[in-house]
Target: O-methyltransferase
Amino acid sequence: MPRMRPGGLLVVDNVLWSGRVLDPQAPDDHAIVDFNELVRADPRVDSIMLSVGDGITVARVR
Model:
């Protein structure tokens, strides 16, 4: 997020990965889980994960 301005939005689709994030087994599954955790734990952003379709995360830079 270093290139994003305050107030900038990052919108990411497929963050629930067809439910595979609940029981990750493949490397791709773990990559999505890791991404979700990074966004959740990042103090520079406010974020929300929506369970619409395959999941959408919206993060706003503080």
